[in-house]
Amino acid sequence: MRKVIAGTLLFAAIVFLSLSVCAPSHAAELTLANTPVRVFFSPKGGCTEAIIAEIDQARTEILIQAYSFTSAPIAKALLEAHKRGVGVEAVLDKSQRTERYTSATFLFNAGIPTYIDDRHAIAHNKVIIIDGGIVITGSFNFTKAAEEKNAENLLIIRSEELARLYRENWILHRNHSEDYRRPGSD
Predict the structure, then answer these.
(1) pLDDT digits (tens, 9 = 90+) for 172-181
(2) Which of 82, 93, 117, 126 is catalytic?
């Protein structure tokens, strides 16, 4: 119960801070009452396992935005979801074109639509939207280092209203992104 209360307070602070620094056209204001929130902290706080558990329960859609995405366990969970008929799509930062190891190639080779958002200096989002009702976000990069070495945080928020806003934002980014192409495939 303390984690849910702390998570709700943390989420409220994040929403308040993000609304105060976003341009008005990109802002939204919500009051989320009785919204379940799970909170995780790394290193070694179970963030990766929590993400995989949510992906494993997905039924219809998983939309992911990532700055750094090198986590093999998360990529494999996305592949398994894709194989069972869940619509999976990824929008990744342009750095994923040139990283030595990136899950972009893995997803692309698996037939999962993968896009590169190069419109921004950094596409720094770390978001997964599941089935239009779950938002996974926080500072947690989808990497092994984030789980094992870094001090990061992860929120899993169950809210259709919040998921709708994140999904709309995801679509905006996908629409100005380009299809991922394997390095050397041009």
Answers:
(1) 999 999 998 7
(2) 126
